[in-house]
Amino acid sequence: MTVRAAHVLVHLVFVLAMPPLLVGVIARTKALLAGRRGPPLLQPYHDLAKLLRKGMVRSRTTTWVFVAGPAVGLVTTLLAALLVPLGGHRAPISFEGDFVLFAYALGLGRFFTIAAALDTGSAFEGMGAAREATFSALAEPSLFFGLLVLGRASGSASLSGMLGPAVGAAWGTAGAALASVVVSWFVVLLAENSRIPFDDPATHLELTMIHEVLVLDHSGPLLGLVHYGAAMKLFVFGALVLAVAAPLGGLDPWLAWALFAAASLGLAAAVGVVEGVMARLRLPKVPSLLVAACVLAAFGPLFLVR
Amino acid sequence: MTEALLALPNGAAVSQNAVPELTLDALREAIETASARGRRVSALFGAPRGERLALYVVLADDAAGLLECGSATLDGDEFPSMTPSCPEVQLFEREVAEQWGVVPRGHPWFKPVRFHRSYRAPRDAWGRAPEDPLTVGVMDFFRVDGEEVHEVAVGPVHAGVIEPGHFRFQCHGEHVMHLEVSLGYQHRGVERSLLGGPGKRTIHYMETLAGDTTVGHATAYCQLREALGASGASARACALRGVALELERLANHTGDLGALAGDVGFLPTASYCGRLRGDFLNMTAVLCGSRFGRGLLRPGGVAFDLEPERAAELRKRLDRAARDVTEAVKLLWDAPSVMARLEDTGRLDAATAAALGLVGPASRACGLRRDVRKTHPAGIYRLVHLPISTADSGDVFARAYVRWLEIERSIEYLRAQLGELPRGPTARECPAPRGGHLAVALVEGWRGELCHVALTDEAGRFSTYKVVDPSFHNWPGLALAMRGQQLSDFPLCNKSFNLSYCGQDL
Predict the structure, then answer these.
(1) Which residues of chain A neighbour B173 with C-beta distances below 8 Å?
(2) Which residue, A139, B123, B266, B399, is the most exposed by fewest CB within 10 angstroms?
(3) H-helix segments, B16-155
(4) A98-119 and A123-154 helices cross at what angle (nearest 10)?
(5) What is the CATH number of the domain that holds B80?
(6) Is B475 within 8 Å of B325 (Cβ atoms)?
(7) In a domain? residue B178
(8) Is residue A103 over pLDDT 90?
(9) pLDDT tens-place string over residues B256-275
(10) Domain presence at residue B180
């Protein structure tokens, strides 16, 4: 029981402490590929500390929804992070059907982020809200098709079962299905976390933004919550992809934690490489890529039933 | 009709008595038939003639390499608009109306340009009283109405550190039906400040008409002064001006390609070109001590000579920068994800571009052969000919590709020039302007044709000084290129034109 408690504690430490580091790794990788030195790896932590210390400006037209957006966004992402098994260990919260809670916790967070954007009444934010809603609706089916494959391969209906030790065994029997899930989920990771080729988190051009434009009016601590929540979401989606791509179940539990940390950093570097070598998609082409990812994931169950 | 106008070469001065005074109808016919006769409008402006107002026009005949001038006196406070049959004068007519309080009757898009009081207040083309407030950007914007139509307003304060300008989009979802550009925030009244000159300040005004076109505008002014003074610059001075002008083109074109890459999120080219732009600016600093070429050009010649040692240093830096810029830009053309963004975005066909009177790389990207260096050569370009770089698709890619072709050709040109600069003095005395003259100077700046026209009074002082920056011709091109485009492609499209706000607002 104490060992289990220790693993839960490690899980919490990873969820709370690691996300900004991933953002730092992406920024550093991008900078290196562009021939620059780039910001220090720990810069995102300093940025968060700075934002949390700052004052806040709020538009007079906004209501409590504006404040609830970032808060609910962070809390729901945290809940999702507690449902996902990390490094092959059972998640702190786990029950039959918890994947539905996982998907809709993220959905609730998105709903509040969009509602907070609409609350400002700005034309830009309305535009961003429409884009965010459209694209995330297209990304969601990929997630469920992937979970369908994993549920069938593992015979479990909880995330800890689906993404646990059973995955390692499933690569032998259903490799093609799992490979399509990995590719599809990596695309979803890029889309959900507003990375290139879907969105450019570094741009200052309001008209091209998707996710960034939703939070244009948030400042200070609220913006800090938004950034922290976004980093955590990246971490959660990374953990999903890694659980399938690099299953660590069955290894020495402490070695698994170390490998998980290394794999997360490696995945962040991969995201940085994608950003470094390609341009953004034209906005009307974004749905095509998301639908392609969805179709790929939908092939997973076909591979299984044959 | 053509015979009625006076033909003169670029960089010429004539007595104002020699400039034909036409009837208004004859002048209108000359302008309205300009494009049919293969002419385009380089300048159209008003100048007081006694109590009344005279309209002056400068048409460019690219085939013959000549400029055509003419004027007509207005009888009252209005004249029939020529815009319906010659769309390229629409902004010129609005400018004349705003400056002199006359009304172009039947103008289809009659709105203020820079939001200032008329030079002949309280006369006002829109009938606004002197006590009515005049706020930049406050006017009737074109509106599309409908249940699902929405309006997006951007600026005048932008997210990047750029100049102020207001853009109003009429959208259906992500689809742009119409873009209206409203400028005037940078209006400083430069043209009025030049009156009574030339003086000590004049050259500094010229160098800051549009900061990124310092050498271009200063070259146009110097050519105009030398024409008015019936002198010229030495061959060595002309060659050095050419070196500075091409370095300015290199710096800006390289910066633009980098910025285009940055706008589509393609980092390698964005970072390298950002650095290389600085390298080209530093080469200008080697030439004259200022990265933007300030203080280099003076009427009569140039203020700094280029000794063989520094010429060799420039050549060495040029070789290094040429190698790097080739690699950086090659990455751009080789990335399919970048090409997918540039191609077919913001397309403008040649007919529209010609009707709007576009100039510079934006016009050459549509296949128009408009390059003052080739068609109206002055200075060093009379001796050394640069081919016109064109593309034909008229989209963002074409505007980027024309820039790349010009980068290659400017580098080639500089290599040749720096190896064999003509000998001789760098500057000679520039006599005071002759009285009662009119002079025109055209220069191909990196953004396109710069047109300066000056009229002098009996004492040889400027009584009218007209500056036409290429941005003045090209802003409507951006508005039309955005029709039917994606709202999210506007920044990319805007960057592909990269127009000047202060050059237009003056």
Answers:
(1) 130
(2) B123
(3) 24-32, 90-100
(4) 180
(5) 3.30.460.80
(6) no
(7) no
(8) yes
(9) 999 999 999 898 899 899 99
(10) no
Work out the minimum CA distance from B468 to partner chain A, whole angstroms: 29
> At A206, phi and psi to the nearest 5?
-55, -40
As a three-state string, the secondary structure of A167-178 is HHHHHHHCHHHH
Which of B143, B260, B264, B486 is the best residue to mutate to test the A interface, defined by the most A CB atoms within 10 Å of its own CB? B264
Q: How many CB atoms lie within 10 A of CB B2?
A: 13
Q: Which two tokens stand for residue A223?
A: 């913006």
> Measuring CA to CA, how many Å separate B283 from each of B237, B304, B337?
17, 14, 33
Give the best residue of A206, A207, A271, A289 to mutate against chain B (max B CB count within 10 A). Answer: A207
**In terms of pLDDT, which residue wins out, A204 or B282?**
B282
Quote the CA–CA distance of A228 and A20 in Å, as a whole number.
7
How many C-beta neighbours within 10 Å does residue B392 have?
13
Helix (H) or strand (E) holding B151: strand B149-154
**β-strand partners of A260:** none
**Min distance A195 CA to chain B CA atoms (Å):** 10
Element (H, E) at B456: strand B448-456
Q: Is A155 in the B-facing interface, judged by CB distances under 8 Å?
A: no
Lowest mean pLDDT among A200-209, B167-176, B314-323: A200-209
A275 touches chain B (CB under 8 A): yes
> What pLDDT was estimated at residue B3?
55
CATH number at B273 reads: 1.10.645.10
Predicted TM-score (pTM) of this structure: 0.90
A24 and A271 in contact (C-beta within 8 Å)?
no
What residues make up the domain containing B222? 190-293+306-505
| Partner residues linked to B57 by β-bridges | B44, B70
Confidence class for position B236, pLDDT limits 50, 70, 90: very high
Q: Is B159 on the interface with A (CB under 8 A)?
A: yes
From first CA to last CA, the distance across chain B in angstroms is 33
CA distance B245 to B446: 8
Instruction: Find, in chain A, the residue whose alpha carbon is nearest to that of B167.
Output: A207
Contact (CB<8Å) A34/B341: no
| B396, B346 Cβ separation under 8 angstroms | yes
Task: Choose the final residue of a domain: B57, B80, B105.
Answer: B105
| Number of domains into which chain B is organized | 2
Residue extents of the structural domains in chain A: 2-305
CB A300 within 8 A of CB A145: yes
Q: Is the ipTM of this complex over 0.90?
A: no
Per-residue pLDDT at A121: 86
Residues B82 and B194 in one domain: no
Mean pLDDT of chain B: 92
Measure A125 CA to nearest chain B CA, in Å: 11
Whether A278 sits inside 8 A of B173 (CB atoms) is no
Q: Which residues pair with B468 in a beta bridge?
A: B451
Residue B68 has pLDDT above 70, yes or no: yes
A contacts of B486 (beta carbons < 8 Å): 282-284
Are residues B451 and B310 part of one domain? Answer: yes
Judge whether B450 and B442 are in contact, CB under 8 Å.
yes
Domain-located, residue B329: yes
Domain boundary among B77, B105, B133: B105
B331 touches chain A (CB under 8 A): no
Tell me, what's the pLDDT at B503?
92
Total residue length of chain B: 506
Q: Identify the band that residue A35 occupies on the pLDDT scale cut at 50, 70 and 90.
A: confident
pLDDT at residue A36, rounded to an integer: 86
Q: Is residue B472 a part of any domain in this protein?
A: yes
Give the contacts of B126 (CB within 8 A, at least 6 positions apart): B112
The CA-atom distances, in angstroms, between B12 and each of B15, B19, B382 are: 10, 12, 14
Signed CA dihedral, A56, A57, A60, A61: sign only: negative
